Amino acid sequence: MTKSELILRLAELNPHLYQSHAEQIVDTVFEEITKALASGARVELRGFGAFSIKQRKARTGRNPRTGETVQVENKRVPFFKIGKKMHERLNGITSDSEDDMKD
Q1: Cα–Cα distances in Å, from 62 out to 59, 65, 69?
Q2: Which fold is adopted by the domain 43-103?
Q3: N or C, fewer C-beta in 10 Å, the chain?
């Protein structure tokens, strides 16, 4: 799903919202997650997952075209850890509480 598809789906599921408002909502959520990560904070969305930043050390790499050795500087990269509910849903696992609700 692309960002524009997400915006369309959000607008479809919420007919009281104009598509431009749905776009503002999606842009705001992404911007706030980005700002939090840039400041070093962790962003946790319960049931979905958590975004954080990992520090990668400097290393020696290779240019895949030429095979030439290059120095890769240390850098910060985003990391996503899937939440328990998302993991269960993706793997078809149901929790006891969900089973109780079906009975």
Answers
A1: 10, 9, 5
A2: HU Protein; Chain A (4.10.520)
A3: C
